Amino acid sequence: MIGAILLALAPIALLIALGHLMHRRRFLPDSFWPQAERLCYYVLLPALFIHALAMADLRGVPVASLAVTLMVPIIVVSGLLVLAKRWLGYSDAAFTSVFQGGIRFNNYVGLSAAVSLLGAPALSMAAVANAAIVPTVNLLCVLIFARWGVAQPTLRGVLRGLALNPLLMSCLIGILLQASGLGLPPGIDSFMKALGQASLPLGLLCVGAALDWGALGRGLRPALAASFAKFVLMPLVTFLMLKAVGLGGQAAFIAILFHALPTASSSYVMARQLGGDAPLMAGICALQTVLAALTVPIALLLLAPAL
C-alpha cells in the first residue's frame, strides 16, 4: 500500500516541483503566474466543480454522512484554535494566518490525489467533499477576519464576499443541477469537462510557482502551530468522526485525504485583502506544501486502514 500511495502522489509532487523550477528559472515571465492562478480560480476550477457535481452518479455515495463528517472537524479545530489564541500569544493579524493555515485546504492537490489514488469515480466524492468544505471554510475564515483582521469587513462585506466566491457559487450551481435532475446538455457537458480537466495540472504548476522559500524563515513558530492543527488535529478529529458515524470505504478515505491536505495558496490573497499577516501566510503555505509530501501518505497509511 505504501508503494501505491507514493506512486499515485508522485505526479502531483513532480508537477509542483516543475512549477517551482519554471518560476525560479524564469521560463515564463513572473506576470504569467498570477494570471494563470486567476484563470484556475475563477474559470477552470469552478467548471470542474460544476461538471463533477452536476453529472456525478451519486448512487451509493453517502452524501449526507460524508458532508457532515467533513464539516464537523473543521468547526471543532476552528474552535480549538480560537480557544488557544490567548495561549499562543500571536498578534491578531498573525492569528488569522495561523487560523487559515489550520483549516484551509488545497483543492488542486486534493482533487488530483483523489483521482490518482482511487481513479476517475472518486471525482464524484471529491466534488461532494469540496461542496461541503469550501462554504464552511470560507465562512469561518471571513468571520475570523471580521473579528481579528486589520481591515475588518462589515456584515454586508462578509455576505458580498461569500456571494462572489467562485468556488462557493460553482458548488451551489452544481448541486442545484444535480438535485433538479437537469445535469448539463451534451455540448455544454463536454465544454465544462474540458475546462475542468485543465484546472488540475495548471493549478499544481501554480502551487509550485507560489512556493516562497524565503518566507519559511519568517515566523517559523506560528507556521509550525498552523501545521500541527492541519496535519495532526484535523486528520485525528476526522478519524474520530468517521468512527462515530460508522463511515468507511472510499468515502472515509476521501475524508482523511481532504483533511490531511496543505493549505491553499489563495489564503495569501485573503490575508492580503482582509488585513491578515500576508508574509506569514506565504511562509505557512510554503512549509505545508513541502511537509505534505510526508504527512499526507502518513495520514493515509495510519488512519485509513483502521476504518
Automatic annotation (TrEMBL):
InterPro entries: Mem_transp_PIN-like, Na+/solute_symporter_sf. The keyword Ribonucleoprotein does not apply. Pfam families: Mem_trans (PF03547). It is found in: Cell membrane. The chain crosses the membrane at residues 6-23, 39-56, 62-84, 105-126, 132-150, 162-180, 200-220, 232-260, 280-304. It is a multi-pass membrane protein. Keywords: Cell membrane, Membrane, Transmembrane, Transmembrane helix, Transport. Its main location: membrane. Belongs to the auxin efflux carrier (TC 2.A.69) family. This is AEC family transporter. It comes from Bosea rubneri.
